[in-house]
């Protein structure tokens, strides 16, 4: 554990020897994955505690309705600010409020239905499930993207093996420990942005070390899949637009 | 059995050693089949436990259906239309139909289905393993590969290792998502590269070409199916 913490610290400080030693190890992927999973779980642990405590706290019916009503009011206010951009029909806000209230009423009625196990068990299991899903969601995004980066890196003359490449790029998750404060207003999103930029910089550095090529090539390999994806999405939209115009 | 699971665990981390070990095994195809069935059984059993827990912490579906119907019937648009008996009857039928389709689409816990997976999952995973293994073997040989069919099947069976991630579904509400698919693809790449001693590019082609072949085949069958349906139903309405 101490070794992993040292690795994480050195990664954050962009120490070249640490990256090189990590990539050269036979268990680089295992270590990278362990760090990624641990960081993601640690970052989510505060939210888990907050959610579990919130779900186990008995809440009166009035308080629940008040909370829901506040949510509706906020949404209606945001609708009002959008009115200058969209031509909303008269009475739209009133109707929207009525439907939202009806929908929330259905939600409360379903929430009050009996379950076979006590309700708090279900709530805690739901929170735990969402918490344990976090690493899988991060793994899916990272691995899916890494496949394309791997392909571009190979085309650019990269020499990393698949485990080396994945083991190195998994280190990008380390700064996301800052997501632990994600629930704090204003500070949370700011730290999230810092972690994202820091993570991208680590990704590029790790890619460069693993493939034994320049930072310039590493940036290219990192960016090209996004650019190709964006270009394809744009082309798709354009094609849809042309089809729509052609069909009248 | 223990050795096989240990081999699958090592294979998960994409090192070539476990794949080479399977390649040199005395009976790679049989051991591959045993591994695939074991993994599928373990995942299905974990899924059954998770589904049972989810079912026990979810209200009865028919109760939810009743509550939603009551809520909808109190909405202004329904009140406006409820005097039309034709609307009421159509709505009742459509509502019943939705409730037959949507719960399974949105992952409502179904214990019968989860129990059936104990049989269906080994069959499904086994079939996918066999189909992919045979087609990948053909493409790998086309690319100059040197492995035999049993060796290919043994090595690609190790690519079922990412399915082990699904074991976490013994806890309800955990979503494993797309990581298994991406990881399996990588394992298959390492499996074919090691088994057939291919270069990176050729191994990549041998890994991806079966996917493309299945996609083309599926599209062809879908086109054929819709053409046949158009012929049948088109003919039916014109009569």
What does this entry look like structurally?
The complex is a heterodimer of chains A (248) and B (239). Chain A has helices at residues 2-12, 16-24, 28-56, 61-82, 92-111, 119-155, 162-169, 187-211, 215-246. Chain A is mostly helical and 248 residues long. Chain A has one domain (2-246). In chain A, helix 2 packs across helix 8 (187-211). The longest helix of chain A is centred in the middle third of the chain and has 37 residues, at 119-155. Chain A is globular, with a radius of gyration of 24 Å. Chain B is mainly α and 239 residues long. Chain B has 2 domains: 2-55 and 109-238, no CATH class; 59-105. Chain B is built from 10 helices and no strands. Chain B has helices at 2-12, 16-23, 28-56, 61-73, 76-81, 85-105, 111-142, 149-158, 179-196, 200-238. The mean pLDDT of chain B is 90. Classes of the chains: A mainly alpha (248), B mainly alpha (239).
Rg result of chain A? 24 Å
Oligomer description? heterodimer
Query: How many discrete domains of chain B?
Result: 2
Give the biggest beta sheet of chain B. none
Mean pLDDT of chain B: 90
The stretches of 5 or more residues of chain A where confidence is low (pLDDT under 50) are: none
User: What share of residues of chain B is helical?
Assistant: over 70%
Averaged pLDDT of chain A, please? Answer: 89
Q: State which percent range the strand residues of chain A make up.
A: under 5%
Extended strand count of chain B: 0
Tell me the span between the first and last alpha carbons of chain B: 62 Å
Element-by-element helix/strand order of chain A: HHHHHHHHH
DSSP strand tally of chain A: 0
What's the tally of helices of chain A?
A: 9
User: How big a fraction of the residues of chain B is strand?
Assistant: under 5%
So what's the overall shape of chain A? globular
């Amino acid at each position: 554990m101490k070794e992993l913490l040292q690795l994480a610290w050195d990664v954050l400080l962009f120490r070249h020897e640490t990256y090189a030693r990590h990539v050269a190890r036979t268990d680089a992927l295992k270590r990278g994955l362990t760090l990624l999973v641990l960081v993601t779980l640690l970052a989510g642990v505060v939210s888990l505690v907050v959610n579990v405590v919130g779900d186990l706290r008995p809440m009166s019916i009035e308080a629940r309705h008040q909370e829901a009503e506040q949510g509706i009011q906020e949404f209606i206010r945001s609708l009002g600010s959008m009115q200058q951009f969209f031509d909303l029909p008269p009475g739209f806000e009133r109707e929207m409020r009525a439907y939202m209230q009806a929908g929330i009423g259905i939600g409360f009625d379903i929430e009050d239905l009996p379950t076979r196990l006590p309700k708090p068990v279900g709530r805690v299991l739901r929170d735990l499930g969402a918490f344990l899903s976090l690493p899988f969601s991060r793994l899916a995004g990272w691995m899916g993207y890494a496949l394309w980066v791997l392909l571009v890196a190979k085309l650019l003359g990269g020499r990393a093996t698949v485990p080396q490449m994945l083991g190195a790029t998994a280190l990008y998750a380390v700064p996301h420990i800052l997501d632990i404060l994600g629930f704090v207003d204003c500070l949370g999103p700011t730290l999230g942005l810092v972690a994202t930029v820091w993570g991208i910089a680590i990704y590029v550095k790790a890619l460069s070390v693993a493939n034994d090529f320049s930072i310039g090539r590493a940036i290219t390999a990192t960016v090209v899949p996004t650019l190709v994806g964006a270009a394809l999405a744009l082309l798709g939209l354009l094609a849809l637009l042309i089809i729509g115009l052609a069909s009248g | 059995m223990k050795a096989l699971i240990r081999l699958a665990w090592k294979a998960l981390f994409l090192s070539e050693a476990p794949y080479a070990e399977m390649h040199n095994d005395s009976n790679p195809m049989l051991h591959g089949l045993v591994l695939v069935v074991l993994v599928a059984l373990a995942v299905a059993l974990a899924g059954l436990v998770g589904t049972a827990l989810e079912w026990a912490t979810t209200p009865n579906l028919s109760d939810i259906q009743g509550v939603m119907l009551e809520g909808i019937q109190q909405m202004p648009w329904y009140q406006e239309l409820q005097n039309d008996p034709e609307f009421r009857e159509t709505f009742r039928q459509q509502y019943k139909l939705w409730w037959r389709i949507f719960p399974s689409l949105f992952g409502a816990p179904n214990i019968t289905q989860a129990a059936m997976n104990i049989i269906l999952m080994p069959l499904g995973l086994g079939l996918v393993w066999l189909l992919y293994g045979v087609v990948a073997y053909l493409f790998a040989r086309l690319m100059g590969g040197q492995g035999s069919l049993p060796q290919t099947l043994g090595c690609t069976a190790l690519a079922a290792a990412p399915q082990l991630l699904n074991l976490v579904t013994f806890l309800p509400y955990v979503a494993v998502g797309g990581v298994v698919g991406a990881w399996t693809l990588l394992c298959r790449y390492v499996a074919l590269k090691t088994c057939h001693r291919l270069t990176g590019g050729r191994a990549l082609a041998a890994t991806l070409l079966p996917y493309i072949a299945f996609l083309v085949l599926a599209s062809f069958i879908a086109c054929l199916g819709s053409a046949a349906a158009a012929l049948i139903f088109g003919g039916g309405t014109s009569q």
